[in-house]
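Notebook B, p. 112. Complex prediction, attempt 2.
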Amino acid sequence: MEPPRVKVAVVGASGYTGQELLRLLVVHPGVELVAVTSRSEAGRRLETVFPRLRGAPGASGLAFIEPTVEAIAASGAAAAFLALPHGLAAEFASPLLRHGLRVIDLSADFRLRDAAVYREFYGHEHPAPSLLAESVYGLPEIHGERIASASLVASPGCYPTSILVPLVPLLERGLVDPASISIASLSGASGAGKKADASLLFAEVNESLRAYGAPKHRHLSEIEQELSLAVGDTVRVSFVPHLMPVTAGIVTTIFCNACDPDTVSERVAEAYAETYAGRPFVRIRGEGAFADTKHVVRTNFVDVGWSVDRRTGRLLISSAEDNLGKGAGGQAVQSFNLMFGLPETAGLLQF
Amino acid sequence: MEPPRVKVAVVGASGYTGQELLRLLVVHPGVELVAVTSRSEAGRRLETVFPRLRGAPGASGLAFIEPTVEAIAASGAAAAFLALPHGLAAEFASPLLRHGLRVIDLSADFRLRDAAVYREFYGHEHPAPSLLAESVYGLPEIHGERIASASLVASPGCYPTSILVPLVPLLERGLVDPASISIASLSGASGAGKKADASLLFAEVNESLRAYGAPKHRHLSEIEQELSLAVGDTVRVSFVPHLMPVTAGIVTTIFCNACDPDTVSERVAEAYAETYAGRPFVRIRGEGAFADTKHVVRTNFVDVGWSVDRRTGRLLISSAEDNLGKGAGGQAVQSFNLMFGLPETAGLLQF
Amino acid sequence: MEPPRVKVAVVGASGYTGQELLRLLVVHPGVELVAVTSRSEAGRRLETVFPRLRGAPGASGLAFIEPTVEAIAASGAAAAFLALPHGLAAEFASPLLRHGLRVIDLSADFRLRDAAVYREFYGHEHPAPSLLAESVYGLPEIHGERIASASLVASPGCYPTSILVPLVPLLERGLVDPASISIASLSGASGAGKKADASLLFAEVNESLRAYGAPKHRHLSEIEQELSLAVGDTVRVSFVPHLMPVTAGIVTTIFCNACDPDTVSERVAEAYAETYAGRPFVRIRGEGAFADTKHVVRTNFVDVGWSVDRRTGRLLISSAEDNLGKGAGGQAVQSFNLMFGLPETAGLLQF
Amino acid sequence: MEPPRVKVAVVGASGYTGQELLRLLVVHPGVELVAVTSRSEAGRRLETVFPRLRGAPGASGLAFIEPTVEAIAASGAAAAFLALPHGLAAEFASPLLRHGLRVIDLSADFRLRDAAVYREFYGHEHPAPSLLAESVYGLPEIHGERIASASLVASPGCYPTSILVPLVPLLERGLVDPASISIASLSGASGAGKKADASLLFAEVNESLRAYGAPKHRHLSEIEQELSLAVGDTVRVSFVPHLMPVTAGIVTTIFCNACDPDTVSERVAEAYAETYAGRPFVRIRGEGAFADTKHVVRTNFVDVGWSVDRRTGRLLISSAEDNLGKGAGGQAVQSFNLMFGLPETAGLLQF
C-alpha cells in the first residue's frame, strides 16, 4: 500500500517559478496538490492556463483560486510553497505558519539573517523580521539537517545556488583566498520572470549577450552571507550576472586565487568528495571539465568542474544548473522532501 | 570623377571570416574585387556559394579560383586578405609580399613578436619567423600609424580586440593592477568557424551555455603580448572564453583591481577620451553602461562601458563587438583603408 | 558636386519598423533626416534610444520630438514616413499631404481600395476614406510607375509582399488555379512589434513553433485585393501565419494547383523573367531551390524558388524576405527612391 | 512487491533518437537496461558519453558495447530497440527475432507494406522483404491492438505521426476530400540527426527559416500508405517539411477541403472524441486552438487543434509533438509498454 501523500498548496503559481513547481508536483509520488492560487488566473483551470500540464495525474480537476490565507488553510494543505514577489511572501508566511502549515518560500524574504542587509539590498524595511531567526536557508547540501526540521525554509536564489555549491567547501577548508573572488554568471531569460517588459521580448534578448545588474545585484547579499558563514569572517566578492538567449540554465565561472596552486586541484577534489558524497544532486565533473547547462536544464542537478591556471595561480571553477530547477522549484521540492521524510530524490529524477 | 579602386584578392574565402570579408568588400566604394580563392569551391560562382551576395555590384561575374600565388598575382591585386588557417597563411604571405602585394593576414601567423611563444601556443614551429619583425599587429586604434605604412598586417583575433581596446589605455596609465586581471568572454558560434564538427551542431549549441579552452586559449598569447607592451613589463591574465548560442558577437567582462577606487571612474573616462577621441569605431558608453552585442553585430564598432565595485575595489569593464566584424573582417578592412589612404570608415558604416 | 539631399521625417520612430527605417535612412546618400517623432521618447537623443545608431552620420545631433503635424512641417521635410499604428496613421497623412509633403505610410490605413473591407478586417470605420482613391499600393515591382508619381504610398504588409511577388505574375498569366491557393507563412518575432506583451517574451517564443491568426489574419485583406486585381476576379485564399523563434525574416510556402503540371515549371520561369528582369530586389532562385531567410535578412531582397509536385499536380512556391526590410522599412525606402527620382537601390544595397 | 522489470537492449544508442530512448529508459519503472550498443562509443560508460544521464538509476555502471547480435542476445534482453540507420536496422532485426527478442525498430526499414515503395523512396532494395508482412506500424492510437501482440514493431517517422494522428479519423469518416490535402510541417534541428554536416551547424540553422526535401521527402511514403489505408483507396498529398531553429519539436499545418464546411467542425470534434477517448497521449485542443511545440517537447503528447476557413471551405488543422518524443523514442516506448503488458503511460508521464 502506498503511504499517504502530503497535501500541498502552491501560492502564486502563475509565474515561471510557480509553473516549474507545478510541473514537478503534478507527478510527484508523495504529493497531493490541493490548492494553487493566482490573483490573475483565479477561476481558470490549471490545464487551461498551462496547456503543457494537461494529462498530468495531479493537475486533473484543479482550478486556480484567489490567494487568501483562509482558502489555503481550508484546503487541508500541510505544506505551502510561496512563489510570490519579495515583500508579499512574508505577508503569507506568518499566518500560514500560525495555521500550522510548513512553508517553503521561494522569494528573498527569509534568506537573509540580518534585516538591515535586507533593507540595503531590497530597498524597504523587512516585512517580518521576527521570523528571520526561525527560517532556514534552503540549500540542502549545506543545511540539510536543519531543513529537515524547519517550519520555514527560505529557498535560495538561482545565482547563489550555482556559486555556493562549488565555493563553500573550498572556503571552509581555506583552499582559496576569500578576498580574491570574482564571479561571472550567465542566466537564461526565464530568470527575469514572466513580466511584460519590452526589454525581455524575444526580439530584444535573442542574438544579444549582455551583462547587467553589477556591481550590486540583490543576490549578492545572500551569496556573501553564506560565504562569510563558511569562512567565519566577512567575505566580499565581485559578481557580474549576464542575460543570455536561452530559456533556462545558469552557468557560473568563478575566478579566485588558490592558496597553494600546486596542490589545489587535489584538495578541491577531496573537498568536494567529502562534502558531496551521498548528495544525489551535485555532480562533480572533475578537473579540466567545464559544466554545460545543456546537461542540467529540467533537472535538479548542479554540475561542477574546475581547472587551475598555473600561470596566474588562480583556480577557475565552472558550475551549471537550471535556474528554475536546482535554482528554484526543484530545490524547493528537494527541501520539501527532507522536511516530510520523503526520499531526497522523490519526484526529482528526470533526465 | 571617382578615384580608381584598389584591386583586392581574398584568399581562402569560403569560411565565415572570408564570407564576412566578401560581404564588406562587394559594396566597398574603394575596392575592386579581382580574385577570390577557395580550394573546395574553385570554379563555382560567388553568388552560388553565397546566395546572400547575389545582386551585389562587386560580386557580379566573379567565380572562385584555386589558391595559387601565381593566379593571385596575375589578377593584378594590390592587396590580399588571407582568411586561411594558421600555418597555411604564412605560406602565402611570403611569396605574395615578394610579388609586391600588401598583405592583411587574418590568421594568427604574424600576430606574435616571438616565435617561441607561437610554438608554445600553436604547437608547431613558426613557418616564417623572418617576417615577424616586419609585420604590424593590426589594431588600428593602437597601432594605426604603423599600419598605414605596413606591407604585412596581422589582424588581431576576435577575443583580443574586445579585451585590448578597453584595457590598453588603462594599463598605459597605471589605473589598474596588471596582476589582478580576470576576463570572461562570451562568443557566438561563428567564432568556431565553419567546420563540420558534431559539437557545433545547432542541437548541441542551442540552449547551451558553457566555458571552454581555459586556462590557455591560443588568443591568450596575443592578449598578454599587447598588454605587456602597454605596461612595459610581463603581464599574465586569466582568460575564460565561453561558447554562446548566438551566431555572432562577443561580450567581454573584465575584473581588475583599481589602483585608486575613489578616482578610477573619472580617470578611466579621461583615458578613453584621450585615446579614442577621433577614432570612429570605439564607442565609449560611460560608467554604469553594459555593452550589448545586439548593438554591434554586423558593424565595425566596439562598445565599452564600466562600473566600479566600491565594496571590493574592483573595476568591472564591459565590451562588445562582432567577432566576425571588428573582431575579424571589419577590422581587416579598417587596416586596409589606412594602408591605402582611404577614409578609415570607407565601406564600414553599416548599422 | 553631390546633389541636394531630400529632407525626410520619420513619424512614430520608436517601434521595430521605425527603427529599421532609421537604420537605413541614417546612411542613405540621398537623405537628410530632419525630424524623428515619438510620443514616448520625445526629448531623448536618437543615439540614446538606439545605441546601435551611434556613430551614424545622419543620426548625429538628432533628438526625438513630439509627433505634431506643425513640428513635422516646420522641419522642412519633403517626405514623411509614417510608422504608426493603423487608425492613427490616417490622422497624420491628411494634414501632412495638405502641407505639401509626400507620404509613405507603413500602416494598413491606405492599403485597401474598399473602406468596407477595411472595416471588416480592422474592426472600425476607415478614418479617411476620401484618400483611398489617391493612395498607391507600394509594391514597386508591381506598381512602380504609379508609385513614382504618387503623393501617398501605402507600403504593403510584411506577409503580403512575400506572397504577392511570387504569385501575381503567375495569376496574371493563368498558370495556376486561383481557387486552389493555400499559404503557410513563417515570421520572426519582430513582426509582432515592440509591445510589452507576455506572450512575446523570449521565454515564450524561444523553442516554440506555432500557427496563429488563421483563418482571417488582417493581411489577408490586402493579399486577396492584389491577387484579385491580378486575376481580374475575386480570389479567396487560405493563409496560416506562424510565429517563429527568429528575430527577423519571413519564409512563405505556397501550395497551388498548376493548370498544366507538365509545362508549369518553364512557364513560371518565363513569367518571373518577364516580370522581374531589371528589378533589382527580386532574386529568382529557380526550380528546386527553397528560399532561406538567412540570405535575405537585413537586405531588401525577396528570394523566390519553386518545385513541381508531379504526383499531385501542385506547384510549390517558396519565398523569403526580411519582414522589417523588404516587408516594411526597406520597401518603403525603395518607394521613396522612386518617388524622388533617386536610383531604386539608393541606400539599400547592404549584404 | 514490484513486478520484475523487462530486460531491454538499445542498439545504436549514440544518436539523438538513441539518446532520447536512454533518457526515458533509465527511469522507466518497468525496464532494466541490460545492453546499449554503439560502434563509435564502445567501451565508454554511458555517463561519460551522455553527461546528462549521470545519476540516473538505470544508467549506473552501464558501458556501451559493440553492436553484435551475439552480445545483445547474451545480455538476456527480451526486447531490443533499434536506433540504427535504415538498411542497417534490418540486418539486426532478423537475427534478433530468431533469438526470441521482440524488436521495436525506429528506422524506416519495416514501416512500408510494399518493398517496391521502399525501393522508390529509399533508393535501394529492401534488405528483408520477408519480414514486411509480419511487422506492425507502431502508431498505438491507430494500431494499438496489433502492436500488443507483435514481435516486430516499426515505429513511425516523426513527421508522419504529426500528420496521421489528426488526419486518419477524418479520412476514415469522409469528412475531408483526400485529393485536397497540402501539408506544411516545421521541425527542429534534432530531426536531422547528430551528423557532422556543415549545413546543420549552429551558425547555419540559427536565424534561418527554410523549406527542404519537397516534393518527395522519404516520410511521404509512409504518410500516404497510412492515409490510403484510412480511405480504402490511394491517397496522394503534398508535403513540404521545413527546418527550424529549435532543438526539438514539430508543428504541422494541414490544409484540406471540408466535404461540408458548415458541419465539419462538429464532426471533427466527434471523430476525435470517438477515436482518442481513453488514449492518454492525444490531447484535443478544440476548434480555434493552434498547437504549440512548447507544450509538448520532452513529452509523449501530440496536441491537435483546428479551425474552419469558411471563406474557402477549407479545414485547417494544427498539430504539435516532440520529434524525438512522440515522433520517435517516446512512441517506441509506448509500443513497448503495450507489447509487454505494462501501463501505456509507464515511464512516459513527464511534463
